[in-house]
């Protein structure tokens, strides 16, 4: 890709945002969802169409459907009604959005993204809007507005960074979610969201891998982990009566560099002798329902508790995934709980009771591992990661929907010796999105992804130049899938890894064979060679 | 054009007040009728709006967390920015409402030479905070007009506000601050291209209206030297439901009064309702405890799921040949009916 393709500039906004006209350019849109995927999920208006088409083949009464849908959601969600009403347009959110910074498109200012919806709300649902129309900030709902919604609500990664800065906590993710729900009602959805959702619904995971294929992938990883360590590592599938159901994003057993994180988990579980199982039915932690509708989120998420109940496990352990944890942390218990058939999670190794997961009974792998490290139960040799100079990207959802900030850092600082933070206003709750979340991570949308990811890449570049950082760690499957492309474009020479990949490198397992290479097969840094028999283990 | 319309409407209101104040019929309408209408609109509108929000349920637990969660004793949690208890939520809300915590984080992003530069930016926070506190102080000072005897705290606030003892009558700091802050917010709306781009009629109207109220107030106090006793007589009469406009109030007073009535009537139907809405914001007023306490969704609709029996039925042979345990006994009846939960 030529260096000049993506020019990042700052441009003063021009024109009037109330003009809904949008130019659909390749590179900055996601293609429409295939009719078969809508069919598989019993969604309305399956048909062949593309955003570039003049005629979107909307149902004849689309306007009524959208307005009725809005009315219903205004009644069901306080967030929606409130966020439609109280914005004062102070502009604090404007330059907090990675898509605005990267594209200089003024409709990517979070406030304007919300105004695209608010203007319709005012026109049809408020007294002043009905009386005064555009003077009161109202707009007519036209087909062009639908197209504009499609463009901009699929140009928001629901990362919630703007909400951190909003004096009223207005959350653009809520508005984008409503926008997408309304678009779904008239069949305007993207394939990158609905195909994984349809696959997940049917087979259990985004990739549509059937149970035998799932087993092959898992077995392959277990064999590789066995080979690396010289130990016998097996992964139980659909085993009843295990203590823990382990749920991970499907990318972990299908994608790279996710795969190395999976090896890390498997080695950890083997070393501590965890009594666990994975499930082929609930073989997906991720939930693309979050990117389409609350209803779809619930439909896909239901499998996890159902499977935990069927397998009679005591609690659920969840792998590294951002939006999966948004759902597990903020939605699962409400939607598909109560989890009264499970027990309050207790670490079988340290005896720690995970009080913060007392009700959902779902623990984040970083919480689990950080607790192990804190108690000194793991033998770690951080020198095995000396070939990495790492930084950590707070994935949006764990940061802004949970506050899972120090647990991954605790692990990182115990498993590697070269760790440098990116600038303060680009990490933790102020972290910049990868630019590809919320179902935007498809190649046809690459230009917009590179634009949206620019602020994140820029912060990586800063620590690369300052500290020689060559590894960006993260705990999100979408990050791992899309950050490599982003960094290759903006900051060549920086790799992407999960936290548990580095743990897997550093973990000194009982009876392991001498290890000379990391999970990627890259040789350890010279002075770390003799680590196979390292006697000095590093504990937190 | 929005800004011009907004200015014209505010000027028209002020002019109506000025003109009405010079006619006996106008004085009666402005001092004895309109204030009641405005008060009714304000109270009813405000309650209605709050109720509209309050009636809508909060189906999901969606706080935006701005710091470390409470997990282990050995990791220090951000008790206020990521509260896990109701006390923490109280502190977070207090910080939002009294100190504009989130706005305090504001930064400015600039792109130059292919780099993104983030810098501190406190002006919006400072001017917004100064404006709101000054406005509150001014409102509380106005209690002097409605209460007899004047409460001690009102006198104390006045002494504090006129601390510098400049001029006669002494200059209230809050008057200076409110006009300066409104002026800054207005200039920012004009000069910052992004903010100008997003500004609607209502954004300018609110600022012009507040400025006009402040300016007419200042004119009365420092320049036309209105007799406060007359104002108090009217205010007490209004409060006692026996309104009687005394002589000698002057046209500027009526302009001030009409502008205030316009603000009160307009507020419930405008973005100025943020003063009530902030208390209900679900990203701020919920504790981050959704994994330790179940949040209930009052309309938790059943949905169609793909159940395990359906799944096993479809993949049974593949499961068996892969050696994955199956659940349903051989030859069992059709287990594939969709279950809703």
Q: Would you kindly provide a written description of the structure presented here, covering whatever features stand out?
A:
The complex is a heterodimer of chains A (540) and B (341). With 540 residues, chain A is mainly alpha-helical. Chain A has 3 domains: 35-189, Orthogonal Bundle (Fumarate Reductase Iron-sulfur Protein, Chain B, domain 2); 196-374, Glutathione S-transferase Yfyf (Class Pi), Chain A, domain 2 (Up-down Bundle); 382-533, Rossmann fold. Helix content of chain A is 44%, strand content 4%. Chain A contains 22 helices and 7 strands. In chain A, the strands form 2 sheets. Chain A has a 4-stranded parallel beta sheet. A 3-stranded parallel beta sheet of chain A has the order 5-6-7. Chain A is globular and about 75 Å long. Chain A starts with 34 loop residues before the first helix and ends in a 34-residue tail after the last helix. Mean pLDDT of chain A is 95; it is low at 530-540. Chain B is mainly alpha-helical and 341 residues long. Chain B has 2 domains: 2-63 and 125-280, Fumarate Reductase Cytochrome B subunit; 305-341, no CATH class. Helices cover 58% and strands 4% of the residues of chain B. In chain B, strands 1-2 form a two-stranded antiparallel ribbon. In chain B, strand 1 and strand 2 form a beta hairpin. Chain B is elongated, with a radius of gyration of 29 Å. The interface between A and B is large, with 119 and 105 residues.
